[in-house]
């Protein structure tokens, strides 16, 4: 429609004439979105589990380069959403696909003048590592501020010969750095990470002639932006489960950055072996301070199961054929079992697992990863 707002001129110009407002009749107008075409190109059709696979999406249109975001999907499961660059492209890297067959697509949602589109599926085969190769475990052991918005991630790989193969660092689905596996210490990655909210980091060891690839669990963190913040570190990052069931103790430290003096809450967020529990002493720390994490085996015989069996011995105790002293001794035995039979610890883990530990203070989140498992497993680093 076209709308006239009306006009009343000065009397000296046009006398007393007044022009009233008016609106035209509506004219239908159909806008057709510019068609887009999405394609997806994998770096390889086949990859070993734990190694990095890069998927590049490309959006084209006869009306210029589409803008907005593209979502990568494994079947119907979203993997990551990335922003298209000036050429209409986005590259997503992952090392976390499980062994098996995958159908990956790139889905572009309608944005501005551009219509949505979905790429043809890329068939990806993820194979399990060769069983003749040494098992490895990658872990991000620390993330610390470097300068300004720059950070430094430290990555360790157990089970791999020092100096063999390379390590990649993935941040929010993008491969930001790759470096040879270090000798005599962790592999360090200085990199820039900006933006609010939680960022996801994954480290991948690409494997070697004698060692299999592996990927760390996801590590969640907020970016070091140059303002008040804190660091979160573990004094040690590799532990063998103790056969005695007494657990392992991990010293943790929190330090202030740029005058920060908040309170952090500590928790184990993933990777804890079945039958184990995390305990922090203390569970929260204000300002610079320390906490002791204990990873310990828990009870394996549930009390509920014993309660279900309780009526049987009670009936036996109540039998009129039992003497008074015999009934008393039997009752004491049942009480002792209920108090002690539930403390049998589960067996130690049969392999190493990476436990992610998180410290949260308001909008700030930082994490460390700790390797924990069988006492018979060799810790090479």
What's the gist of this structure?
Helices cover 9% and strands 45% of the residues. It is mainly beta and 381 residues long. Strands 4, 6, 7, 9, 10 and 11 form a 6-stranded mixed β-sheet that branches.
Q: What's the helical proportion of residues? A: under 10%
Strand percentage: over 45%
**Termini gap:** 74 Å
The number of distinct β-strands equals: 28
Q: What value does the Rg take, in angstroms?
A: 31 Å
Mean pLDDT: 86
Walk me through what this model shows.
With 381 residues, this protein is mainly beta. It contains four helices and 28 strands. Strand 17 (199-205) and strand 18 (214-215) form a beta hairpin.
Overview features:
381 residues; mainly beta; 6-stranded mixed sheet; 4 helices; extended; disordered C terminus
Topology readout:
Blueprint: E1 3-4, H1 11-14, E2 22-23, E3 37-42, E4 46-48, E5 53-60, E6 69-74, E7 77-83, E8 89-94, E9 100-108, E10 117-118, E11 122-127, E12 137-147, E13 150-158, E14 166-171, E15 174-180, E16 187-192, E17 199-205, E18 214-215, E19 219-221, E20 229-234, E21 238-240, E22 248-257, E23 263-270, E24 276-281, E25 284-286, E26 289-297, H2 303-309, H3 311-317, H4 324-340, E27 353-361, E28 364-373
Parallel strand pairs: 4-11, 21-28
Antiparallel strand pairs: 1-2, 3-5, 5-8, 6-7, 6-9, 9-10, 9-11, 12-13, 13-16, 14-15, 14-17, 17-18, 17-19, 20-22, 22-26, 23-25, 23-27, 24-26, 27-28
